[in-house]
Amino acid sequence: xxxxxxxxxxxxxxxxxxxxxxxxxxxxSVVTPVITTSLYFVVFGSAIGSRISQVNxxxxxxxxxxxxxxxxxxxxxxxxxxxxxxxxxxTGTIYELLSAPVSALEIVLGYVGAAATKSIILGLIILxxxxxxxxxxxxxxxxxxxxxxxxxxxFSLFGFIIGVWANGFEQLQFIPMLVITPLTFLGxxxxxxxxxxxxxxxxxxxxxxxxxxxxxxxxxxxxxxxxVAISLGMTLGLLGxxxxxVTWIFKTGYRLKN
Length: 258
Fold this sequence. Notes:
Blueprint: H1 8-24, H2 26-48, E1 54-55, E2 58-59, H3 60-63, H4 65-91, H5 94-99, H6 104-133, H7 141-165, H8 169-185, H9 198-204, H10 208-221, H11 228-252
Antiparallel strand pairs: 1-2
Helix pairs in contact: 1-6, 2-6, 4-6, 4-7, 4-8, 4-10, 6-7, 7-10, 7-11, 10-11
């Protein structure tokens, strides 16, 4: 195989290694989202759902399902991808990987592909769990799958960038816990931004997570607080930005080669 040929074995080795780590903690990985989703329905579905019967013509319990899936997709994609690339840095095996006959693209495909696969599996588990509590319909299944794949890939790339940037395990948790989770809660995951006062609604529109959640919710029920075209554009824009940053990291060797 020449250096210019696509190294499928290299990508497959990285992918299988990362998925093997997922399988070793399969019970924990499956049980945790099931319990968390159930708790969300007990707290939000019962406490708030009893006061708000419908949002934009959709029952409140069903309305929050896309937000729950997106919340899990954001955090799991970042967590899996960031830890996947940070651990080789921590142990020093990153240098063996960089010296192997595997290109930057193949390294990213292996790590990001595995992280995206894991987060999508967990997202589907949450969807299955939610369907036990509330009736769910998917009006635009092709768009639902598209938003799911694009969001998982984008945030897995973002997690890869965080894993390269981080100098310690604390920094791996910093952005997901103090940035992504708050933005998700403030981004209409559990409510419609049309319910907010005009001033706060205008401020919320500067939150990029609003567009990702609303685009995904539109694929379920055909309702959205913002334009679906803008939602798709924001998702593709995030994906493109992450690709540019990953390309820059490998070109400069930022925190990889020194």
